[in-house]
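wait is this the right file?? whatever heres the structure
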C-alpha cells in the first residue's frame, strides 16, 4: 500500500495508531489523536545468516479485526507470522504480539520524526529502547531480552545485521535492536512526557501478562459494542456486511472523537507534507452537521452536546464566523480560505441538538456573522465552495446561510422573542429576499446551477433539499437538476462523482455523493433507488469494513483516503431513514 493509505487504525481516543496492509506501524499520534505524528518508521525484519528480510516483502494472507484489535497474518519466505496489535483503553500503550511457526531472529528498526524544533535522541536501558525529545518519550520494552542493539548509525545494522553496542545513549533519531531465537514476542510501545514516568511505565510493562491485557481490551470493546446492540439500525438487515459496517462505524467514531470536546476527525492524516492534498486529520464544522446527526442516531448525543457547548465557543471568531477547519481541541488548523457553510452548519447543528437556550451568545454571534456575509443581491458573498477548490458565489453557500438563518430565527424566538425582535424582523426580510435571489441567480433554464458563473453539474445542488430544506424534493427545478446529476456524474462502477470534470485523485465516485443522492431519493419517495445506492456503498466497503472517500471510477476498489468519518456518517443517516420507512410500511 502507498504511504498515502492507512489500511487500519487502532487507538483509545487519546492515542491513535495507523497501520498498513502488512501490519507496519506507519503513523502514531500522541499526546492527542491529531497532535504530533511521531513515527517515521517502525519496521520489522527477519535476520537469517546476515540476510535482512523486511516484512515489507511478506505476502499478506489475511488482515482482520476483533473489535478494535487488529490481526495481520503474513508469510515471509515460508515463515508464517501472526501479529496482533491493540492500544490499551486506559493507558497510552500499544501492545504488539508476534508469533512465528518456527524460531526466528527478529530485527526491529525504529525511527522517530525529528526536525530542528523537535530533536530526537535515544538510549537503551533495562532491556528497553527509549526514544525521546523534550516532552515526548516513546519506549519499546519486551518480554524477551534484547540480544543486540545499536543507537548511533543504526542504519548500518540494517544492511547485514552487524551491531555496534558501544553506545547505550546517543543523539540519534533511530535505533535498531535484535531479539534472537524466538517463536513469540510481545512488545509494549509506551508514551509518556517525562523520563521519570517513562521508567515507571517501563517497569509496569515488564510485569504484565499479555494474554490478560488482551482479554481485558477485548472485553472493553465487546462491552462498548454491546451498548448499541438494540439500536433500530440493525432492523431489517439483509447483508452481513451491512451489520459489519455499522459496527465498524461505531468503533471508528470511538477512535476519532476527542472526548473532551466532542469533535470528530475527518480521518487520520495521510499526507502530512501536503504533497497531494490539504490534509485530512482535522475537524470541519461543516462535516459535523452530518457526523453529529449520525452520533445522535447512535445514541451518542452527550458528545454532540459537548461539541456545541465546549468546542464551538472556543473555535468561533469574534465576527461570529468559523474558519475552514480546526484541531479537535478547537484551535485553528492550517486553512486556505473561508467557507460560509461552516458557520451555518454550527447554527443548524445547535438547532437540531435542541439545547440552544444554553448557547445564546454563540447563536447570536453566528447569526450576525451570516447576516454580514450576504451581498447586495441577497446571496452569499464570495468564498470557497463546498469542495474547497473554487472561489465564487455558490448555491450551496447561499443555501446554507438561508437555512442557518431560518434555524437561528426559531431559536431566538424561543430564547426571548421580545429581546431579539429586531433581529428576527431582519431575518424574516432577508429570508424572503434570499429565496427570490436563489431563483434569480442560480437557475439556468430549467435546472439549478452550482454558482452564479458556473453551470457544471454538481452533487452539492442537492443541498437545497438536504440538508438545507429550501425546496421540496419533487420541485421541478430540483428534479431537473437530479436528472443532470444522473446523466453527468454516474461513473462506470455505478457510483457518483462530486461534480462534472472532477479530477481530484483521478475523478472518482465518492461515497458521500452516492449516499447524498440516496437521501434525496428517500425524500422523494423512491425507496428502491435509494436502496440500490445504499447497497452499492455496502458492497464497496473495504475488507476491514471501512468506507473510503472515493471508489476508483473504473475499478471496484478504494481510490483515495480510507476510514472517512463523513462517509460513515452518511451511511448511518441513509440506513436510519431506510429503516424508518420500512417500519412505517409494516405498521400500515
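ok assuming it is, sequence goes like this
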Amino acid at each position: 500500500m502507498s504511504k498515502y493509505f492507512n489500511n487500519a487504525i487502532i487507538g483509545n481516543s487519546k492515542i491513535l495508531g495507523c497501520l498498513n496492509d502488512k501490519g507496519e506501524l506507519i503513523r502514531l499520534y500522541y499526546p492527542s489523536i491529531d497532535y504530533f505524528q511521531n513515527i517515521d518508521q517502525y519496521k520489522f525484519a527477519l535476520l537469517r545468516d546476515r540476510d535482512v528480510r523486511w516484512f515489507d516483502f511478506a505476502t499478506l494472507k489475511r488482515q482482520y479485526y476483533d473489535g478494535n484489535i487488529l490481526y495481520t497474518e503474513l508469510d515471509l519466505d515460508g515463515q508464517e507470522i501472526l501479529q496482533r496489535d491493540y492500544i490499551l483503553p486506559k493507558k497510552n500503550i500499544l501492545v504488539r504480539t508476534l508469533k512465528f511457526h518456527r524460531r526466528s531472529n527478529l530485527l526491529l528498526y525504529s525511527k522517530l520524526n525529528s526536525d530542528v524544533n523537535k530533536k530526537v535522541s535515544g538510549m537503551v536501558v533495562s532491556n528497553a529502547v527509549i526514544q525521546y525529545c523534550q516532552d515526548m518519550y516513546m519506549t519499546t520494552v519486551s518480554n524477551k531480552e534484547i540480544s543486540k542493539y545499536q543507537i548511533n548509525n543504526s542504519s548500518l545494522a540494517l544492511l547485514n545485521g552487524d551491531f555496534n553496542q558501544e553506545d547505550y545513549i546517543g543523539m540519534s533519531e533511530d535505533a535498531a535492536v535484535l531479539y534472537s531465537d524466538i517463536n513469540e514476542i510481545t512488545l509494549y510501545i509506551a508514551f509518556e512526557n517525562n523520563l521519570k514516568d517513562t521508567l515507571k511505565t517501563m517497569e509496569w510493562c515488564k510485569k504484565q501478562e499479555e494474554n490478560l491485557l488482551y482479554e481485558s481490551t477485548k472485553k472493553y470493546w465487546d462491552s462498548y459494542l454491546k451498548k448499541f446492540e438494540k439500536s433500530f439500525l440493525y432492523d431489517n438487515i439483509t447483508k452481513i456486511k451491512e451489520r459489519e459496517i455499522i459496527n465498524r462505524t461505531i468503533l471508528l467514531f470511538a477512535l476519532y472523537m476527542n472526548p473532551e470536546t466532542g469533535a470528530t476527525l475527518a480521518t487520520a492524516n495521510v499526507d502530512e507534507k501536503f504533497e497531494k492534498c490539504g490534509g485530512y486529520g482535522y475537524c470541519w464544522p461543516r462535516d459535523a452537521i452530518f457526523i453529529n446527526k449520525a452520533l445522535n442516531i447512535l445514541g451518542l448525543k452527550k458528545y454532540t452536546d459537548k461539541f456545541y457547548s465546549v468546542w464551538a465557543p472556543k473555535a468561533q471568531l469574534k465576527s461570529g464566523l468559523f474558519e475552514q477547519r480546526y484541531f479537535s481541541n478547537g484551535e485553528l488548523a492550517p486553512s486556505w480560505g473561508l467557507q460560509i457553510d461552516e458557520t451555518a452548519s454550527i447554527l443548524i447543528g445547535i438547532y437540531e441538538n435542541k439545547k440552544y437556550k444554553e448557547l445564546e451568545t454563540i447563536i447570536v454571534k453566528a447569526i450576525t456573522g451570516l447576516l454580514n456575509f450576504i451581498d447586495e443581491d441577497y446571496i452569499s458573498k464570495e468564498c470557497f465552495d463546498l469542495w474547497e477548490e473554487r472561489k465564487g458565489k455558490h448555491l450551496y453557500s447561499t443555501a446554507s446561510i438561508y437555512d442557518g438563518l431560518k434555524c437561528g430565527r426559531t431559536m431566538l424566538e424561543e430564547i426571548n422573542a421580545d429581546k431579539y425582535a429586531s433581529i428576527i424582523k431582519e431575518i424574516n426580510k432577508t429570508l424572503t429576499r434570499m429565496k427570490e435571489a436563489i431563483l434569480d441567480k442560480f437557475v439556468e433554464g430549467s435546472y439549478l446551477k452550482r454558482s452564479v458563473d458556473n453551470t457544471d453539474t454538481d452533487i452539492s445542488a442537492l443541498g437545497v433539499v438536504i440538508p438545507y430544506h429550501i425546496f421540496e424534493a419533487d420541485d421541478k427545478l430540483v428534479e431537473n437538476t437530479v436528472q443532470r446529476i444522473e446523466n453527468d456524474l454516474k461513473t462506470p462502477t455505478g457510483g457518483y462523482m462530486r461534480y462534472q470534470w472532477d479530477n481530484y485523485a483521478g475523478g472518482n465516485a465518492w461515497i458521500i455523493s452516492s449516499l447524498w443522492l440516496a437521501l434525496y431519493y428517500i425524500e422523494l419517495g423512491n425507496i428502491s433507488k435509494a436502496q440500490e445506492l445504499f447497497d452499492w456503498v455496502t458492497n464497496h466497503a473495504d475488507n476491514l469494513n471501512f468506507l473510503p472517500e472515493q471508489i476508483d471510477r473504473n475499478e471496484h476498489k478504494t481510490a483515495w483516503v480510507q476510514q472517512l468519518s463523513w462517509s460513515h456518517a452518511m451511511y448511518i443517516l441513509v440506513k436510519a431513514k431506510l429503516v424508518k420507512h420500512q417500519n412505517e410500511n409494516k405498521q400500515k
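The longest strand covers residues 93-112. so i think its the right one actually
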